Amino acid sequence: QVQLVESGGGLVQAGDSLRLSCAASGRTFSSYDMAWFRQAPGKEREFLARISWRSGSTAYADSVKGRFTISRDNANNTLYLQMNSLKLEDTAVYYCAARITFTLRYNYWGQGTQVTVSS
């Protein structure tokens, strides 16, 4: 069974940087896409970035393009999200997720990690 465990969230000030991690286990992830989502209070879950575990190709939402970077460490089965120039509106619970490549639905989710950006 796939397990995803996020870490690295916390309270930061606007303009700061933060790196989230997602430890993945239970499968060989070479046939998976991994992604980061977030959900702010009262809002729908929002896609942020995606990476192919095999090729490393990436895609980003316009809202974070140029500020956030998704990456993975194949050897340690860890997904990362480097977040720079954080804004108040980046406050949310951040989730990592996994899906089999070429499928639409992310079937596996972590428990989330809270990121709070203060002024």
Keywords for this entry:
119 residues; mainly beta; four-stranded antiparallel β-sheet; 11 strands; 54% strand
Describe the structure.
With 119 residues, the protein is mainly β. The chain contains no helices and eleven strands. The strands form two sheets. Strands 2, 4, 5, 6, 9, 10 and 11 form a seven-stranded mixed β-sheet that branches. It has a four-stranded antiparallel β-sheet with strand order 1-3-8-7, with no helix packed on it. A hairpin with a 4-residue loop joins β7 and β8. The protein is globular, with a radius of gyration of 13 Å. The chain starts with a strand and ends with a strand. The mean pLDDT is 95.
In short:
This protein is an all-beta fold. It has strands spanning 3-7, 10-13, 18-25, 32-39, 46-52, 58-60, 68-73, 78-83, 92-100, 108-109, 113-118.
The secondary-structure class comes to mainly beta
Strand content: over 45%
Please count the beta strands (DSSP E, at least 2 residues each): 11
- Low-confidence regions: none
Which sheet architecture does the biggest sheet show?
7 strands, mixed
How far apart the termini lie comes to: 40 Å
Q: Report the radius of gyration as a whole number of Å.
A: 13 Å
Tell me roughly what share of residues is in helical segments: under 10%
Nearest-integer average pLDDT: 95
The count of helical stretches stands at: 0
Order of helices and strands: EEEEEEEEEEE
- Which outline best applies? globular
Secondary-structure blueprint:
Elements: E1 3-7, E2 10-13, E3 18-25, E4 32-39, E5 46-52, E6 58-60, E7 68-73, E8 78-83, E9 92-100, E10 108-109, E11 113-118
Parallel strand pairs: 2-11
Antiparallel strand pairs: 1-3, 3-8, 4-5, 4-9, 5-6, 7-8, 9-10, 9-11
